[in-house]
Amino acid sequence: MTIFAHRGASRNAPENSLAAFQTALDQGACAIELDVQMTRDQKLVVCHDLTLDRTTDRRGYIKDLSLEEVQEADCGSWFHDDFSGERIPLLQEVLRRVPPSVLVNVEVKNHPCHQGIIEEALLELVAREGRQESVLYSSFDHRVLQQIHRLDPSAKIGALFYANILEPWQYLEDQGIVPFSLHWAEEYVSQELIQGAHQRGLKVFAYTVNQGDRTRELASLGLDGIFSDLPREMAGSLDGG
Ligand code: G3P
Ligand code: CA
C-alpha cells in the first residue's frame, strides 16, 4: 500500500512546509502529497488554502500577492514556536528537496482566475526539473485535469472526488480525462469501487486516514494507498505495529 504523507508529515510539522516534507522523508515516506497555488506574478507555491489567513501570520488571497509578499509570511508559528520563520515554499524548492524515487502528488488548488495558466506553468516546471515520472497531478477541479491531459497525454492524473459517484471511470472518459488513479474520500471507499477501478487498470487512493485500524481495514479491501497526516504511524500499523 502506498502511504502519501499528506501535506508532508503534517502532524509533526506545519503542513506543506519544507520542514513537513523533510520530516516525512526522514521518516522513510515513499510518497508525498502537497497543494499548489499560483501567486499574482505566476509563481507556483505550496499552500492548501486560497488565503494566507489560517496557516500564516499574514492575510489575503495568494492570487493577489507577489511571491515576495507570500514569502514574507511566517507559515510555521501557528503550528509551534519551534517552526517560527518557516516560509511558504516554491514547488520548485520542494521538488529539489524530495528525491525522484519518492512519488509527489501535486494537488492543484487553483483560483479560477488562473484557469488555463496554472496547468501550463506546472507541466513546464515539472519537465524542467526532470520529474515527469515521479509526479502525479490531482485536483477537485476537473477542468484542470482535462487541460493537463490535453497538454501532456502522458501525465499521470489522479481524479479527486468529494463524494460517491456512480461509474466514475465512465464520467472521466466522457470528460476526456485519462486517469492513473481515483482519489476517494475514505468514508465512501467500498470493495465494489476498488474492484471496478482495478478491472479498468486504475488505482484507488483514499483521503485522509489517520487511524491504524482503518488503514488495515482498507488494505484488506485491496485499496492501493492512503493519504495520511501520520505516514510513519500508518506504515507501522500495516507492519503489525
Ligand atoms: O488529495 C487528497 C486530499 O489532500 C484532498 O483534500 O482538503 O486535504 O486537500 P485536502
Ligand atoms: Ca490536498
From TrEMBL:
InterPro entries: GP_PDE_dom, PLC-like_Pdiesterase_TIM-brl. GO terms for biological process: lipid metabolic process. CDD domains: GDPD_TtGDE_like. It comes from the Bacteria. Residues 1-238 form the GP-PDE domain. Pfam families: GDPD. GO terms for molecular function: phosphoric diester hydrolase activity. This is Glycerophosphoryl diester phosphodiesterase. It comes from Alkalispirochaeta americana.
